[in-house]
Amino acid sequence: MNPISNIWNHPKTSAAGVLIAVATIASVLSQQGISLGTVGSGTVVALVSGLATALLGLLARDPETMSASTGSTAKLGAWALIALLLQIPFVSGCTEITVAQDIVNWTPALQSAVATVNSTAALLAPADAPIFITATAGFDAASNVLAAQAKAYLANPSASVLAQLQSAVVAFQQQVNASLLEAAKITNPNSQQQVLNSINAVATVVSAILALVASVSSKDQVAQMAAQSTIKLATVRPYLDEDKAVAMVAAHYGAPVDLARAHLAQAELSTAQAGF
Q1: What is the reported pLDDT for 29?
Q2: Are 138 and 175 in contact (CB under 8 A)?
Q3: Are strands 38-39 and 42-43 parallel, antiparallel or unpaired?
């Protein structure tokens, strides 16, 4: 098909394709720390990405577009939502304040997950409880430190406070990864399932906070954080519950489950590429 005539005959679909490409390219540039300068309190890349996503959302809701075939409309709407969801860490990362607020917003879920961990030992077989208690012994202290650092960064998003937040989230991430490896040593199927379920909830929140902290960190700072992560994502990946993580992220952002899954897959790839 002639590309020129195709654009002429399907202008809205073509425009949607361009906007999706712009949003996707902006995501990649943001991941690589490329800002192309600043606009107000944000960056040029974040501004372009946000505008492209907003226009795509408006296009998906256009009455003329909605009168098209059901299949085309559904695809356009899905792509609009996917583009929007993929921007979550980057749009929220326009300023340190918005990221700091999102980190603070995650802390109630973190503390709830840690409370569940604390109550899980009573549900385990007697021989398994000590292993689990030892593996998760520092969760309370680590969650309190991370929550306090998140609030401190929200109140004062300075470089020094950010450095403390970076250290806190990496330390907790490593503790969670180590606990997953210890939990895998439990051979009782029922106990292992209980243990992994409770630790996975903590892992999901810590991973989300890690991604947010990385979004306001420089490329060198992210590299330094990754260097401190000796237990890599690939090592604990077999013990992570993707469905639980998707459900938690979808609930936190008010996003559809399928789109939360797409966002998590993209975020996991970015985290792995960064060296975590």
Answers
A1: 56
A2: yes
A3: antiparallel
What does the radius of gyration of the chain's CA atoms come to, in whole angstroms? Answer: 21
Alpha-carbon span 192 to 186, nearest angstrom: 6
CB 100 within 8 A of CB 119: no
* pLDDT of the residue at 109: 96
Cα 82 versus chain centre, distance: 14
| CA–CA distance, 143 with 180 (Å, rounded to integer) | 17
pLDDT value at residue 221: 95
Residues of the chain with pLDDT under 70: 1-95
Q: Report helix angle 257-273 to 11-31, nearest 10.
A: 40
- Exposed e or buried b for every residue in 234-273, given b needs 16+ CB within 10 A? eebeebbbeeebbbbbbebbebeeebbbbbbebbbebbee
Rounded Cα distance between 146 and 232, Å, is 20
CB 61 within 8 A of CB 37: no
Q: What is the pLDDT of residue 189?
A: 92
166's tokens? 């970076």
CB within 8 A of 172, min separation 6: which ones?
A: 142, 143, 145, 146, 206
pTM for this entry: 0.69
Q: Look at residues 216, 224, 221, 267 and name the one whose alpha carbon lies nearest to residue 43.
A: 216
Q: How far apart are CA 233 and CA 264, in angstroms?
A: 13
User: What integer pLDDT is reported at residue 163 of this predicted model?
Assistant: 96
Q: State residue 52's pLDDT score.
A: 55
Reduce the DSSP state of residue 109 to 3 states and report it: helix
Whether residue 139 contacts residue 119, with contact meaning beta carbons closer than 8 Å, is answered with: no
